Fold this sequence. Notes:
CATH architecture: 3-Layer(aba) Sandwich
Low-confidence stretches: none
Order of helices and strands: HEHEHEHEHEEEH
Oligomer: single chain
CATH superfamily: NAD(P)-binding Rossmann-like Domain
CATH class: Alpha Beta
Mean pLDDT: 93
Helix content: 25-40%
Shape: globular
Number of strands: 7
Number of helices: 6
Structural class: alpha/beta
Number of domains: 1
Strand content: 15-25%
Largest sheet: 7 strands, mixed
Radius of gyration: 16 Å
Distance between the termini: 9 Å
Amino acid sequence: MKYTDIRQNLRSKKVGIAGAGGLGSNCAVALARSGVGTLVICDFDSVEAANLNRQAYSSNQVGELKTIALKENIRNIDAEINVITYEEKLSQENIPVIYRDCDVIVEAFDDAGMKEMILQTVQESLPGIPLIIGSGIAGWGCSESIKCRKIDDLLFVCGDESTEVDDENPPIAPRVGIVANMQANTVLEILLSKPGM
């Protein structure tokens, strides 16, 4: 498939991103550069100076809501991309509303409980929409341990699935970026392999 055909196909697609931190912001940028037509991004947090070591923001955006800062960054990449933002905490009640029309959803939370909640909610309330989870991004090195595992036709896990973030094993830009881009690559694989592509 030629690059022009790929971008034309992706322009009609809508991808949901749950969280706009390290995974979510970097995944959104990769999808924007690839030409996905609509991104639905939800996060309630603001950019902090401590985020700049691994998230797709700049120092002049510290204090801004992450969704607004990310929308601005994507506009600077490709002004034709439609970025829909929600500034609220995701829950079992609002996930089905926010992401109901998406072709794929990317989970980008730090909290294990939130990961479990979105998995259960998507499977129960948004049947048929693929979900790509990030798990195991902490530390550095060991690039060969980072993989994408297909659980079934609708569930994928990107990361090493073992390294949990803590004070001794923080998230650092290279591994966060690898997993975020692996999530974006999995989105493209799903979108471009659907019938009619």
